[in-house]
Amino acid sequence: xxxxxxxxxxxxxxxxxxxxxxxxxxxxxxxxxxxxxxxxxxxxxxxxxxxxxxxxxxxxxxxxxxxxxxxxxxxxxxxxxxxxxxxxxxxxxxxxxxxxxxxxxxxxxxxxxxxxxxxxxxxxxxxxxxxxxxxxxxxxxxxxxxxxxxxxxxxxxxxxxxxxxxxxxxxxxxxxxxxxxxxxxxxxxxxxxxxxxxxxxxxxxxxxxxxxxxxxxxxxxxxxxxxxxxxxxxxxxxxxxxxxxxxxxxxxxxxxxxxxxxxxxxxxxxxxxxxxxxxxxxxxxxxxxxxxxxxxxxxxxxxxxxxxxxxxxxxxxxxxxxxxxxxxxxxxxxxxxxxxxxxxxxxxxxxxxxxxxxxxxxxxxxxxxxxxxxxxxxxxxx
Length: 382
Ligand code: SDX
Hints:
Blueprint: E1 22-25, E2 30-33, E3 36-37, H1 38-44, H2 47-56, H3 62-74, H4 80-87, H5 95-109, H6 119-143, H7 158-167, H8 173-186, H9 193-203, H10 208-219, H11 227-236, H12 243-255, H13 273-289, H14 293-309, H15 318-328, H16 336-357
Antiparallel strand pairs: 1-2, 2-3
Helix pairs in contact: 1-8, 2-16, 3-6, 4-5, 5-6, 5-10, 6-7, 6-16, 7-8, 8-13, 8-15, 8-16, 9-10, 9-16, 10-16, 11-15, 12-14, 13-15
């Protein structure tokens, strides 16, 4: 049966919620959290402040921020039995799968309340999830290579503590600030696939750990958050950064109808504003640590893609330059998407809280394309 006019593949353009969390103007390349431009938030606010803004709707006062920061820091620790669960997982497995597994079991270890009936418990679940995700990612990073996890420190900010837990070294001020800004930039992005997944799961009144675990699974795919990992691998397959080489490489990919990772977006038809800021962060790191050869290739690819497919509204998205920043910060490539998750958890939870304020279970319809009213044949007749 042909698609009916009501059917929108990928639900493109179909509103799935009323929301005051995030506003995107895809034609103008504008992104705002709770009405504040992301450029200003990345420059003036840390991740804890932005998380408070997303979860509770307003920027915190100095006292509110101090209390919230302390609350998050106090919740960073993981029960040793959750660490034991991580120790059972195969070290060759992807960190996103380890994160999904750990968050799913967290629901069993922190199940002392009713998040639907009790807003205070709901808030506690949100704080725990934001606080503990970096601890899980860092713990798995160490466990899989045979090292003991490092206990979180409560005297460090959210981003600095994450970097500290990876290798046991306190990051310098620049690394901590850039990690923090990258977390701010990835914290929220309206009704993307993982946020939609989170809201759908939350709408069944499943616990917040199940909602976030399902969102992590959704983020992992290469068409979504998983793209940041694939971008670097893809850039490394381009032999050099000369315009001719990059042009031919891109033309061949496009001729084969292959997707070029880190480009294109359902909503943005111009360059993603986060990509511009991430590029600035990358250059700040290069000033201190020296450049990355792959960066020249990335710049050239952006230029060539503009000429080749810019007219179709295909431009760099958030995942195009983030890997270059993360690599310079010393992160393993397969930890790039987990870093996206430890940031985006704030947005997922903001949507979860909003969903539960006025909940109705998600239950879309479908367009039937099968044959109806059939008679089951006997096994000899099939
Ligand atoms: C994220 O939604 C969000 O907000 C997500 C996100 C967030 O913060 O939550 O911004 C994070 O997921 C960023 C996107 C990361 N993914 C990638 O970089 C993978 C590569 N990008 C594409 O697969 C694609 O652009 C999507 C998945 C991001 C969007 O897909 P759409 O909206 O369904 O668009 P489409 O695949 O139908 O493409 C439309 C046209 C097609 O050409 P035509 O058939 O019309 O000729 O654009 C072409 C596509 O072939 N196209 C690309 C392309 N992306 C789209 N061509 C080459 N390379 C690409 N990357």
